[in-house]
Amino acid sequence: MSGFANAFYNTLVKRNSVYVTSIFAGAFAFSIGFDVGLTSLWDNWNKGKQWKDIRAKYVQDSDE
Amino acid sequence: MATALSFRKALTAPPTVRTLASGVPSAPLLNLAARGPAGHGHHEHGAVGPRSDTPAKFTGGLSLGTSGFTSRSFLNASPTGPAQQRLIHSSAVVKDAPQVPDFQPYEAKSKDNNRALSYFMIGSLGVLSASVAKSTVTEFLATMSASADVLALAKVEVELASIPEGKNAIIKWRGKPVFIRHRTQSEIDEARNTDWKGLRDPESDENRTKKPEWLVMLGVCTHLGCVPIGEAGDYGGWFCPCHGSHYDISGRIRKGPAPLNLEVPQYDFSEGDEKLVIG
């Protein structure tokens, strides 16, 4: 545990430039992950109610 | 030694014991070795002898000479007590803050873990707040962009099958005319084989069209905004009647006052190239 903590400190925190850069990179990854996660949660929660789920019942593609 | 640095001071002590006939008080002798009154001292109760609270002789003292009383004190007298500071003692240790309890059980077990956890929490807060700040800014900017219904109205669909080869179509898009020309093969060859690098606004025909047979551009003369006439002019393209600008079959300015080629709007082909969507 202490080794992990020291590895974290030495690789990410020790230099402030690395720390700030990793914070911004983390914010980028976090915002994408948060967006994807919440969207999939929403789609899962409203399964069968959204237009993309029931579109096949009402619209027949003209090619077929 | 100490005696070398003594100083003398003559005292004229006022006699208080006896008064002479002249009215002057007289005190010819003063017994400096007088005993303390029995039962009144604190130290040697009832002790007999000289007073114990008189200073030792070597520190100075009061003496009676011919010129009267003299008081001496030796400045560099050696200390009367033991010369060394007493270091061994049995009294309680004086603490800086004696009422503070012992916090040893509450202290961190590992300083490294504590440090890593602190920086991790700080970094997590940084990640969250950077993400919040970014989405705040982008959501605010998104409120300024056009809404979906406005964007839907800003598009025009054209059935390409209704335009025969070698014909022009003029449609209205966002209040402006748009020329759509279904070019013939000879027109395409002519547009592509022109040496475009020497033109006023050098632009290749490949850059101006997505498909060579369909030329889509805004029908607004780049000079002063008139609408050019199709299939006219010296170059077989468009001709602006207002001030005489000639455009070729790719819509490029070749002659006249206009500075730029006819503008190409954003467009796309959809549904298997049967429809053209402008906007």
Compact summary:
Chain A: One of its GO terms (cellular component) is mitochondrial inner membrane. Chain A is mainly alpha-helical and 64 residues long.
Give the tags.
heterodimer, A: 64 residues, mainly alpha, 0% strand, B: 279 residues, Rieske Iron-sulfur Protein, 2 domains, four-stranded antiparallel β-sheet, 4 helices, 24% strand, rod-shaped
Q: Can you describe this structure?
A:
The complex is a heterodimer of chains A (64) and B (279). With 64 residues, chain A is mainly α. Chain A has a domain of 28 residues. In chain A, 78% of the residues lie in helices and 0% in strands. Chain A is elongated. Chain A starts with a helix and ends in a 6-residue tail after the last helix. In chain A, 3% of the residues are buried. By secondary structure, chain B is an alpha+beta fold. Chain B folds into two domains: 73 residues, no CATH class; 123 residues, 3-layer Sandwich (Rieske Iron-sulfur Protein). Chain B is 18% helix and 24% strand. Chain B has a four-stranded antiparallel beta sheet, with no helix packed on it. Chain B is rod-shaped. The model of chain B has no long low-confidence stretch (mean pLDDT 77). At the A-B interface, α1 and α2 of A face α1 of B.
